[in-house]
Design goal:
Elements (H helix, E strand, L loop, with lengths): L2 H39 L9 H14 L6 H19 L3 E5 L5 H10 L4 E5 L2 H9 L5 E8 L3 E2 L1 H8 L4 E9 L3 E4 L10 E4 L1 H6 L1 H7 L4 E4 L3 H7 L6 E5 L1 H7 L2 E5 L8 E8 L9 E8 L6 H11 L4 E8 L7 E8 L5 H13 L2 E9 L4
InterPro entries: ACT-like_dom_sf (IPR045865), ACT_dom (IPR002912), Chor_mutase/pphenate_deHydtase (IPR008242), Chorismate_II_sf (IPR036263), CM_dom_sf (IPR036979), CM_II_prokaryot (IPR002701), G/b/e-P-prot_chorismate_mutase (IPR010957), Preph_deHydtase (IPR001086)
Organism: Oceanospirillum multiglobuliferum
Catalytic activity: prephenate + H(+) = 3-phenylpyruvate + CO2 + H2O; chorismate = prephenate
Length: 362
């Protein structure tokens, strides 16, 4: 059998499989429409998007995956199918820290899929206000980077907000050196980026562009926009910004830490049911007395609850008073967690459960 004959047979098989896939996707979409009809018939406040349900589906997708596609790639494909099916019920409206082309937009699309209706906002405060006003169902904000640490503005926004955390997204951050058509590699004298990205690429910049001026701007996307038409300038930004603004990649993955990642929070107004693999975020204010921190953390240790993060922020109610932001494994509805929360509530001056939500699916 000739090569052409073998390829013809394989391509015919691919065409048949594509037809089967298309038929099954449409069958799934029809089921999604029926789900919407059942929910609407029940009356009341209909919640079409269920974070715990979607997390369970994606986990099963990865568990039964046998390759050759990776678990993450298979989950990404199913995320888009789920997003398109959900849009038949009601498109999810999402606000994110903009402008367009930022890593926060990339995190939004990774979590909700490209069928979601996403709106860029100028600041973290604006994202919170948009969700609180009911203009969108959810918001996406960065909360910490594996290299640069916590984004304090996001944590501080929870102090006065009634919003809940309904999910998280962990995004691997790859930085690129980008230029427009007017700039040559050997003539770069200015490099624009967000201050965090400049810090994440500090060693690379010291080695390759030690004399170039480093200029911090409001976002990586803004940096990409600036260098579209400037001479002798470059931007550090992500792949989405490069595509959006039509820039050339002079260097790829220039971040100093190869595992550089940023964690984003999904904020909304509704509490999320247990998915089977969850996290809970808690904000507490301790009394100003010896052993206060020990009393706060002791129930977690005794009950075997895994703490994943503890951050301290200044309180807004007095000098040298602090609030603690705590993330731990488990759902607020779990019996063991309820025991811990009851004990902690008796030991602190104030406590707010920021939300229980599915752990991020990588």
């Amino acid at each position: 059998m000739t090569e052409a004959e073998q390829l013809a047979i394989l391509r015919d098989q691919i065409d048949q499989i594509d037809q089967q896939i298309q038929t099954l996707i449409n069958q799934r979409a029809q089921c999604a429409q029926k789900v919407a009809e059942v929910k609407q018939a029940s009356g009341g406040d209909v919640q079409f998007y269920r974070p715990e349900r979607e997390a369970q589906v994606l986990r099963r997708v990865m568990e039964r995956n046998q390759g050759p596609l990776s678990d993450e790639e298979m989950a990404r494909l199913f995320r888009e199918i789920m997003s398109a099916c959900l849009a038949l019920e009601e498109p999810v409206k999402v606000a994110f820290l903009g402008p367009e082309g930022t890593f926060t937009q990339e995190a939004s699309l990774k979590h909700f899929g490209h069928s979601a209706v996403t709106t860029p906002m100028a600041s973290i405060d604006d994202v919170f206000r948009e969700v609180e006003a009911g203009a969108v169902a959810y918001g996406v904000v960065p909360v910490e980077n594996s290299t640069e640490g916590v984004i304090s503005h996001t944590l501080d926004s929870f102090i006065d907000s009634s919003l809940k955390i309904s999910g998280e997204v962990v995004l691997r951050i790859h930085q690129y050196l980008l230029v427009g058509t007017n700039t040559r590699r050997d003539k770069i004298s200015r490099i624009y980026s967000h201050s965090s990205s400049l810090a994440q690429c500090r060693k690379w910049l010291d080695q390759h562009y030690p004399t170039a001026e480093r200029i911090a701007v409001s976002s990586n996307a803004e940096a990409a926009r600036l260098v579209q038409s400037e001479w002798h300038s470059a931007a550090i930004a992500g792949d989405m910004a490069a595509q959006l603004y039509g820039l050339e990649k002079l260097a790829e993955r220039i971040e100093d830490q190869p595992d550089n990642s940023t964690r984003f929070l999904i904020i909304g107004n509704q509490e999320v049911l247990a998915s089977g693999d969850d996290k809970t975020s808690l904000m507490v204010a301790t009394r100003n007395q010896p052993g206060a921190l020990h009393d706060l953390l002791e129930p977690f240790h005794r009950l075997g609850i895994d703490l994943t993060r503890v951050e301290t922020r200044p309180s807004k109610v007095g000098a040298w008073n602090y609030v603690f932001f705590i993330d731990f494994a488990g759902h607020a509805g779990d019996e063991k967690v309820q025991t811990a929360l009851k004990e902690i509530g008796q030991r602190v001056s104030d406590m707010k459960i920021l939300g229980s939500y599915p752990k991020g699916v990588l």
